[in-house]
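From: lab user (bench 3)
To: helpdesk
Subject: output format question, protein + hexanedioic acid

Hello, I'm new to running complex predictions and I'm not sure whether the block I got back is the full result or only part of it. Here's what I submitted:
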Amino acid sequence: MDQETVEKLARVVDDAAMESTPITMLTAEHDGLTIEDAYRIQRASMRRRFGRGETLVGMKMGLTSRAKMEQMGVHNPIYGHLTSSMKLTSGGSFKKESYCHPRVEPEIAFIMGRDISGQVTSQEALSAVSGVCAALEIIDSRYKDFKFTLNDVVADNASSTLFVLGEKIATPDLDVSNLGMVMSVNGEVRETGSSAAILEHPLRSLAALICMLDSVSEGLHAGQIVLAGGATQAIACTPGSHVSLEVESLGSVEFFVE
Ligand code: 0L1
Ligand code: MG
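Helpdesk reply: Thanks, we reran it on our side. This is the complete output you should expect:
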């Protein structure tokens, strides 16, 4: 795909996010759009955000659960970029009308203590982590009816929208392989799961991200946050909701929807 088309499509997804107006899948008009094109569009849309003053604060992994991979007919996860404007403080709120059709999923987040790149193992990835916390990710596809192909969702920055981090930061020696996770809305339990659902181990997801970034000569940097992926299906965010997540050993994280 030529660079002019990449920039044009980046503008389409970026405008849809800013105007909260769902769009038709990019592949409907560009059926030759490859996964490499999709990541180029994603990065071009990030450059637009950076041009407006947002900064890169981390990365997210998506499609990390077996259920989501089967739903999309894929075998590998995808990644997206997290910017400063996507961060919501635990206990904070957002207006549903500012987004297309937001959904929330329970996650584990890593905080990177040093730069790391290359084809790494889970243990090598862990050696660069300085902290671990509970997280809620609010995803919002810019595509109509939350329907898309793999390449469409990659171009749309893997549906990244907002993220909320728990205040309790555990040290990296915490065993995150099988932590119980309970997500509630207005005090009613809606989803229960385990961190084991995140690519079978959240550290596998972190290592997979570093390996995927290495394939485009990039890596992670000290201070960056990595959302490892959803542990259950995502649920719709409706006005008047108080969404909370309790993660074993990591405490809670919450937000309100106006
Ligand atoms: O964070 C995620 O797993 C979402 C990845 C994109 C697919 C979706 O929007 O459901
Ligand atoms: Mg997610």
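A quick orientation on your result: The domain at 3-257 is CATH 3.90.850.10 (Fumarylacetoacetate hydrolase; domain 2). Let us know if anything else is unclear.
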